[in-house]
Amino acid sequence: KMRRAKRIPFTEVEKECLLKGVKKFGVGSWAKILDHYRDVFQVNDRSNVNLKDLYRNLTKVKAGEEWVPRI
Amino acid sequence: KMRRAKRIPFTEVEKECLLKGVKKFGVGSWAKILDHYRDVFQVNDRSNVNLKDLYRNLTKVKAGEEWVPRI
DNA sequence: CAGTAGGGATAGGGTTCA
DNA sequence: TTGAACCCTATCCCTACT
């Protein structure tokens, strides 16, 4: 099974589409969000699991940081 | 999170096991290598991340040094 | 089989200190 | 100042479950 050759950081556009998608379809609807913004996410070959991971990262409380609701 | 009390240089045995492990399991299979040679790496409490860092140091091109394939 | 959740592993930039 | 060892964490993978 092939691993990705290298890590591809998410772009600001990808992050914005993910957050808009969560507003539109709800948390956990990764496949729906991926399809709705497929033109954006296909560029870097993102999967529904990638979107789940990005959301987890965007919403997690960083060390020594106050919690702020994200969506 | 606890920082290590002191820096522990890698032994020659540790370096040999790492390079053998890379031949056996491939670059990036740090957890597998750690487990296969656990008797060696447990001595100084090495982690999979430690092995990744060691490999990076062993294979990196030093200043003013010609590049030589390492594995 | 497709999808999601959560734990775990890896990659690569950063940091420390001798 | 360089470099070996160590840290940080975004990204990616594995597996159980539905």
Automatic annotation (TrEMBL), chains A, B:
Residue ranges crossing the lipid bilayer per the database entry: none
The HTH myb-type domain, residue ranges: 2-63
Taxonomy, superkingdom: Eukaryota
Protein name: HTH myb-type domain-containing protein
Residue span relative to the full protein: 437 to 507 of 507
